[in-house]
Amino acid sequence: LENIKNSSKIARRLLEYGYHSVLSGTHALQFAKEEGFQIESLITEARKQSYLSQLQEFGLSQGQIPKYQELADNQAALDAKKLSTVGVVAADTESGLLYAISSTGGLYYGYPGRVGDSGIFGQGIYVDKNIAAVCTGEGDKIIQRMTAMRVSLYYEQTSNIQKACEMAIADLKDNQNGEGGIYINNAHAKPLRHL
Question: Which phi and psi angles does 119 have, rounded to 5°?
């Protein structure tokens, strides 16, 4: 969603209705408006300067976008500039319920319309009865490896949350040459950040 602060609150509202799991694009914005969320510019001066710098790097004017092939051809150089996800995992020690929330900071050098791992359950965010996990890093590679869900699978195999994280990160590195980190929690452990 563009121009919505705390868009995770809109996702929560959608899930509370229990009808659809995911909305995107203009219709997600329409839903947010219907639910009374405020539309506002979230562009900071730092982000604006970053955007102008990216345009300059590609020799483009404001409003232009680089060709997709140009971004893909420079993938190795651009991947290192992509890391910006924020995530929170928590456990309610009384009920045993686990929670995860994830928000991307946006993607530098992203093509318009790109959907990252932050909002895709199982890829960049995952919760089940055992773990709550949020990934950060190279989102497109995280999507391809379903990294957040892999943590749960590895936890089931090992019963060791640290080992499960290490295995998921190793899988990302070995199979996609990807970089990333995982915020994880379970009802029996303190929050853990593994990079």
Answer: -100, 5
pLDDT at 83: 56
pLDDT at 194 over 60: no
Which of 77, 134, 132 has the alpha carbon at shortest distance from 104? 134
pLDDT tens, 21-39?
Answer: 888 888 999 999 999 999 9
Please report how many Cα atoms fall inside a 13 Å half-sphere around the Cα of residue 144, on the Cβ side: 15
H/E run at residue 88: strand 86-91
pTM score of the predicted model: 0.78
Give mean pLDDT, residues 125-152: 93
Question: Whose structure tokens read 């009374």?
Answer: 36
Spatial contact of 100 and 134, defined as CB atoms under 8 Å apart: yes
Rounded to whole angstroms, the Cα distance separating 78 from 125 reads 23
55 secondary structure, DSSP code: H
Distances (CA, A) of 93 to 89, 97, 147: 13, 7, 25
